[in-house]
TrEMBL record, chain A:
Binds 1 thiamine pyrophosphate per subunit. Pfam families: TPP_enzyme_C (PF02775), TPP_enzyme_M (PF00205), TPP_enzyme_N (PF02776). PANTHER family: ACETOLACTATE SYNTHASE CATALYTIC SUBUNIT, MITOCHONDRIAL (PTHR18968:SF13), THIAMINE PYROPHOSPHATE ENZYMES (PTHR18968). This is Acetolactate synthase. Keywords: Amino-acid biosynthesis, Branched-chain amino acid biosynthesis, Magnesium, Metal-binding, Thiamine pyrophosphate, Transferase. GO terms for biological process: isoleucine biosynthetic process; L-valine biosynthetic process; sulfur compound biosynthetic process. Residues 233-368 form the Thiamine pyrophosphate enzyme central domain. Residues 1-46, 192-219 are annotated as: Disordered. It comes from the Archaea. It comes from Natrinema versiforme.
Automatic annotation (TrEMBL), chain B:
It comes from Natrinema versiforme. Residues 41-115 form the ACT domain. InterPro entries: Acetalactate_synth_ssu, Acetolactate_synth/TF_NikR_C, Acetolactate_synth_ssu_C, ACT-like_dom_sf, ACT_dom, AHAS_ACT, AHAS_small-like_ACT. This is Acetolactate synthase small subunit. Pathway: Amino-acid biosynthesis; L-valine biosynthesis; L-valine from pyruvate: step 1/4; Amino-acid biosynthesis; L-isoleucine biosynthesis; L-isoleucine from 2-oxobutanoate: step 1/4. Its EC number is 2.2.1.6. Keywords: Amino-acid biosynthesis, Branched-chain amino acid biosynthesis, Transferase.
């Protein structure tokens, strides 16, 4: 889509994006001849067939790094309208493609060469796997005759990535390689999304073929159940009608399943308080009265109180991760669980589902909607939730004469941007503050590494998000100093591609979350968490060709943020925050959600 | 040392009386329901292609399922292979194994076999042959077949249920066992019951979760 093209100039030329989507048929190559010459010539090599498969699938962008074994594919890309973003590191390519998938809903594509290129992708692939993000990774491989001989830059890529992909394939036939890619693309988004990988030996991509790839289609052995069992739906509906203390728990699957709207309508019609998981942020507007925001380890006190005391928990598209549940024994201990998930394996994996509803989130919520005739009588419960909201409000002190509090910076960034602004983060304290103090109202505006907790995710994901985002959506990367330091080479990409990204580095010269745990659980022994010295990120940004800012005290905050946001290109704000600031509330690992600590003394 | 948030202290908050057990099942505060591991046979029909076995065995290892034995071989259809897995897990674990296996793209169908299914394994037992007639007598007892003999040794093939093989090994040990090689269990459902068929016999996921039937594992 051309309006998604952000600052990427070459893609802006692409006037008719329907042309690509329309050609998602096997005979596309011949049909599209009047539109564009580059996509109409019959394929002659495996590599051309790979690229044709991507074009047929509607792929507009790919993220990657060149290399020996993937060169034939890049050579074929040279003639394609697919815009390739050259990344500074393959890990960044995988994260950027992952974020592209989160924001656009379509699988992001990343490419790498064999061996180190492929292994560098692994972190990003594992990240996408944990968060069920649609991602297609294409890796070069040494020629088939060398496979297994420890050739230069050889790695058993399918072997390495099997545990972290939804499916992977070693392509062994030039005639079939394009279809392998089509199938992998289709699999990445079908049912529960996830990363897929196709390993492409150089002789296969170099090999001659005139076979056009098949249209994207998942294999017959992959079956997805769309509608939940009507009997269980009816039973669950009855349970909801009779609930005294109902809660809707919306997970990342709500956003991936495009069920946010249906969930909103359901919650508002029946006045059921709503909690989100971290990946579910944005599925329900946090400024709505029914919203209790996020539950879990660093969730709000009111969300954790509500989840602990509810009697009917309607979990949708969530896998009940331990960061959400805390100790299983004390998680929603009085609640009967209605669990909606497209993946049957998530049902009763961590928390036993009294009403298992396997199916597509949007479809099942509509089924439930039809089945629930009367709203639960839960006026008292809603009042109780509001009471908890005021008892455990997310307020903080920001005295003028003290170092800048991170919460203040997050709120200022939120204020300076529109409701549709996209936030990406690294992993650590800054990520939790970004969850807690930014008010999210729209799905697909929150991009973070939830399950894997990958430090360094922020900047590369901002690149992918920027490219997938609409022009009028700001992209703000809230990062930590430690996290930013891990992948900041991506600044070179942001500058080269003229991407309008604002990075706010909350700099406390600590691996802050580790420091917080060391204070709480290791007698304050700051083993390897105290960085003591950090580069000046604003100057570093300037060295890369980006715009650098620095915030030291409250006077600078609003003005500097405005300048950075309005700067048309990548900018980095080095925000020197209170080095001792910690994240609260907090449920210690495996603890009781209702016993969350509000201060360090309560841990 | 650093300030936090305001609000009632943990001990001032109401605390619910209910509890869940380790499997996440809501229980009566007085009763602790637990699930004992049980031994069972899971049969999976898969596409016969490179990497399937590693997909399946990798799934078991990374999810830390306790696998007792695993056998694999072609079927009547040359594009399909059957993997027979013996596991010992509590019920929720067995349920997870089936569901996770079903998610693998090359897996066509998965089924836990009934206790009356035919289960067989094979063992080759190499013993000292100082008393060949007695070795032959023991082999007879277990329907064993001598597949190799030398002046010093005899190798006997025994097939059957696990207990039978173990009993045979036990009895053969009086002669002095030199080496043993055993296969894992392979199994088929009885009669017209299909061991694992494309989708038709696979339980719908909703039902699978509600199947509380406990069927004690029986090895023959």
């Amino acid at each position: 889509m051309s309006e998604r093209a952000a600052k990427v100039t070459p893609a802006d030329d692409e006037q008719d994006d329907d042309q690509i989507t329309d050609s998602a048929a096997p005979d596309a190559a011949t049909d599209a001849s009047t539109e564009s010459e580059t996509t109409t010539d019959p394929v002659t090599t495996g590599a051309e067939s790979v690229v044709r498969a991507l074009e047929n699938a509607g792929v507009e962008y790919a993220f990657g790094v060149q290399g020996g074994a993937i060169m034939p594919v890049y050579d074929a890309l040279y003639d394609s309208d697919i815009y390739h973003v050259t990344m500074a590191h393959e890990q960044g390519a995988a994260h950027a493609a992952d974020a592209y998938g989160i924001v656009s809903g379509e699988p992001g594509v990343c490419l790498a060469t064999s061996g180190p290129g492929a292994t560098n992708l692994v972190t990003g692939i594992a990240d996408a796997d944990m968060d069920s993000d649609p991602l297609l990774a294409l890796t070069g491989q040494v020629p088939t005759e060398f496979v297994g001989n420890d050739a230069f830059q050889e790695t058993d890529t399918t072997g390495v990535t099997t545990p972290v992909t939804k499916e992977n394939t070693f392509s062994s036939d030039s005639d079939h390689v394009g279809s392998d890619v089509s199938e992998a693309f289709a699999l990445a988004r079908e049912g529960r999304p996830g990363p897929t990988l196709v390993d492409l030996p150089k002789d296969i991509t170099n090999g001659e073929t005139d076979r056009e790839p098949d249209a994207p289609k998942v294999p017959d052995t992959y079956e997805v159940q769309e509608r939940a069992d009507e009997e269980i739906v009816a039973a669950a509906a009855e349970r909801i009608e009779n609930a005294d203390r109902p809660v809707l728990l919306l997970g990342g699957g709500v956003i991936k399943g495009e069920a946010s709207e249906a969930c909103r309508e359901f919650a508002i019609e029946h006045e059921i308080p709503v909690i989100t998981t971290m990946p579910g942020i944005g599925s329900f507007p946090e400024d709505h009265e029914l919203s209790l925001e996020m539950a879990g380890m660093h969730g709000t006190g009111y969300a954790n109180m509500a989840i602990t005391h509810c009697d009917t928990l309607i979990g949708i598209g969530t896998r009940f991760d331990d960061r959400l549940t805390g100790g299983i024994e004390t998680f929603a201990p009085e609640a009967e669980l209605i669990h909606v998930d497209i993946d049957p394996a998530e049902i009763s994996k961590n928390i036993y589902a009294d009403y298992p509803l396997v199916g597509d989130a949007e479809t099942v919520v509509e089924q439930l909607s039809d089945a629930v005739d009367e709203s639960p009588e839960a006026k008292k419960w809603r009042a109780q939730c509001q009471q908890w909201k005021s008892d455990y409000s997310m307020a903080y002190d920001a005295p003028e004469d003290e170092p800048v509090q991170p919460e203040f910076v997050i709120e200022a960034l939120d204020e300076a941007t529109s409701d549709r602004a996209i936030v990406t983060t690294g992993v650590g304290q800054h990520q939790m503050w970004a969850c807690q103090y930014w008010t999210y109202t729209e799905p697909r505006t929150w991009v973070s590494s939830h399950g894997l907790g990958t430090m360094g995710y922020g900047l590369p994901s901002a690149i992918g998000a920027r490219i997938a985002a609409d022009d009028d959506q700001e992209v703000v990367c809230i990062d930590g100093d430690g996290s930013f330091l891990m992948t900041l080479q991506g600044l070179s990409v942001a500058v080269r591609e003229e991407l309008d990204i604002t990075v706010a580095v909350l700099n406390n010269e600590y691996i802050g979350m580790v420091r917080q745990w060391q204070d709480a659980f290791f007698d304050g022994r700051h083993s390897a968490s105290d960085y003591g010295w950090m580069p000046e990120f604003d100057k570093l940004a300037e060295a890369f060709g980006a715009c650098g800012f620095r915030i030291d005290d409250y006077d600078d905050v609003a003005e500097t943020i405005d300048e950075a946001i309005s700067y048309d290109g990548p900018s980095v704000i080095d925000v020197h925050i209170d080095p001792d600031a910690n994240v609260y509330p907090m449920v210690p690992s495996g603890g009781d959600n209702g016993q969350f600590a509000l201060t360090e003394d309560q841990l | 040392m650093k300030r936090g948030l305001e609000g009632p202290e943990p001990e001032e908050r109401p605390s619910p009386t209910g509890r869940r057990n380790k499997q996440g099942i809501r229980i009566d505060p007085e009763v602790e329901a637990t699930h004992e591991p049980r031994r069972t046979v899971i049969s999976a029909l898969v596409t016969h292609e490179p990497g399937v076995l590693s997909d399946v065995s990798g799934l078991f290892s990374r999810r830390q399922f306790n696998i007792e034995s695993l056998t694999v071989g072609p079927t009547e259809d040359e594009d399909r292979a059957r993997i027979t897995i013996v596991v010992e897990e509590p019920d929720p674990g067995i349920d997870q194994i089936e569901k996770q296996l079903r998610k693998l793209v090359p897996v066509i169908s998965v089924r836990e076999l009934e206790p009356d299914a035919m289960r067989r394994e094979l063992a080759l037992i190499k013993v000292d042959a100082e008393r060949p007639d007695q070795v032959a007598a023991v082999a007879d007892m277990y329907d064993g077949k001598t597949v190799d003999s030398s002046p010093e040794t005899a190798t006997i093939e025994v097939t059957g249920a696990r207990q039978k093989i173990e009993a045979a090994i036990d009895t053969f040990s009086q002669f002095g066992i030199r080496e043993i090689s055993r296969t894992g269990t392979t199994a088929l459902a009885r009669g017209t019951d299909r061991t694992a068929a494309p989708s038709s016999t696979a339980q719908p996921a909703d039902e699978a979760n509600h199947d509380d039937q406990y069927t004690p594992a029986d090895d023959d």
